[in-house]
Amino acid sequence: MVLTFQYIKGQNASVEKNIFNVQTGILGIWASNENKLGNDFTIRVETGLDMGYYISAYSDDRYVLAPVFLLEPKWYYNLESRLNKGKHIENNSGNFLGLKVKYVPDWFVISDFDNYSVANQVSIIPRWGIRRAIGKSNFNYEIATGLGYKYVFLKNTDNDLRLVLDVHLRIGYTFN
Q1: Is 25 part of any domain?
Q2: In whole angstroms, what is the distance from residue 10 CA to residue 78 CA?
Q3: CA quadruple 112, 117, 119, 123: dihedral sign
């Protein structure tokens, strides 16, 4: 049996009800669940490991993996336009605006050196991005960018508020 998708004039474009996704990028691995809030709106809940890589002129290069938790409401603003042009929107293929709220706890790190920890930190970053399925498969890619703030809770000194640039390049698989 072959399933085909056809756009019917007047049909409302809509995000998927619920998608579970696993993604990887240059700096980590993540699992997420995106739930429908409305025809164009979702809420993404994500957990994973963010990677940091440190290059030093005074010692060996180092890497660190730290746990991360994310909550992001998203607005997919071009679904109707994509359907009108004959493009598919399966697995939430579309352009989006989001508000990324990310928490990195000081629970544990995976690193190539001993006694390393990360400070607790929270970031809030408005973002623009695209999500696309690769062909007719469940594989996908996401590209997003934004500028926001990160608040770092330092232990022995004043806390630190930093301006951060978020660049998000990932490839993944959606489970239906």
Answers
A1: yes
A2: 15
A3: positive
pLDDT for the residue numbered 75? 97
pTM for this structure?
Answer: 0.84
Coil vs helix vs strand at 80: helix
Q: What are residue 20's DSSP bridge partners?
A: 33, 175
The contacts of residue 161 (CB under 8 Å, 6+ apart) are 149, 150, 151, 152
Q: Are 61 and 53 in contact (CB under 8 A)?
A: yes
What pLDDT is attached to residue 11? 59
Q: Which amino acid is at 100?
A: K
Predicted local distance difference test score (pLDDT) of residue 112: 79
In a domain, 12, yes or no: no
Question: 160 lies in which domain range?
Answer: 18-175
The residue with tokens 């920890």 is: 117
pLDDT tens-digit map of 28-72: 999 999 999 999 999 999 999 999 877 766 767 778 899 999 999
Q: Could you give the CA distance from residue 8 to residue 23 in angstroms, rounded to a whole number? A: 32
Please compute the mean of the pLDDT values over residues 2-23 and round it to a whole number. 70
User: Can you give the CATH number for the domain in which 65 is found?
Assistant: 2.40.160
Q: Report how many domains make up the chain.
A: 1
